[in-house]
Amino acid sequence: MSSACTPYELYSKESGKSYGNQPLSICDESFTPLEVRYDLEAAKPLFTKKIVEAGPDNMWRYRSLLPIPEGFEPDLPVGFTPLVRAKNLGKRLGSQNLYVKNDAVCFPTLSFKDRVVAVALANARAFGFDVVGCSSTGNLANSVAAQSARLGMKACILVPADLEPAKILNTLIYGARLVRIDGNYDHVNRLCSLIADQYNWGFVNVNLRPYYAEGSKSVGFEIAEQLGWKLPDNVVVPMAGGSLIRKIKKAFDELVYLGLVEAKHVRFFGAQATGCSPIAQAVKNNTETITPQKPSTIARSLAIGNPADGPFASRMIRETGGWAEDVSDIEVVSGIQELAETEGIFTETAGGVTTAVTAKLIAQGRIAEDELTVVCITGNGLKTTDCIADRFTLGRAVRPRLADFEEYINELDGLAASAAEPELALAGGN
Prior knowledge:
alpha/beta; single chain; 15 helices
């Protein structure tokens, strides 16, 4: 696979200062995150429907608008995950036009982080880093460990000590060096910034963050293409650092500029857990000021108390006429179960947050019944089974005889009749 990439560079949206291409994430004048800027006029002959549709069945079909260094030929089939019409979930929540963008099956580590890591490591190689790493709440750790192993790069990954056991195991299996930090994600992230400077390592979400974040745009490109080169009315997105929701918007804007989709007013909705909801609170308070929080939620992959892109995410959500909501841990678990029972999609706690928030938004009337709404599911439920384990019990073993089977089924039916399942806690559930 080979196709030309559009010229790009780092710049500050706030100060306007350009930085070329280098491992750097913060503007030294405005002290705000750097962005990647493309020459969109140069992209017009490179990024057409015909060229995209002739590309591989993965996110690299959009490589002309991703920051891929010259000479790098990606071959890992990341992305292009299913966009599923969610009729059953929609019927239960009160939506006739609901879709799920299912990154719970993203390759290779079952989360949308595979997209951002693929782009970040391409740049890490180009910048000559021997060691790569990240601060992580789990999914990113898994992806950096897996993809660095495949590229033959050394990896050092720092995580909060209380991370889910499955995410720890899913990092260690790839041979990465894992360091558990006695603190929350914000403590880990600050330490990683110091290490990156001291050791000259490439941290995907620190000094490589502008390139890393651009990988999220592929979610937006895919949604538009899978809808037949159309934009939805609404998108509901989980928020940790606040980058993903902004990059989906950026992808839509670029498609409109290039004429691949018709311009449309798309509203963006952010989803957070109540135990860590600094961006949602800022949206509700109609401000860009983020008040840091000390995370306390089972949705650990969203537990960033001081999100780097929080002010910009809050601004963008409000400018589109969207909203942000938060849900309790009980609602998170119910959201996981609701999505699994209606659509056969097993998501992690972040997906439970997004599903439960979607229910809440519909119940509040912020999302209308007939509007085309896409719900972004970003990680797989097999990584956070600890949060739902106590909702289910194993039945007794039955002897391999038909009579025993029938006795057992009658026993279960009797139990079901005498003790109906408790109502799910989703705000919009019928």
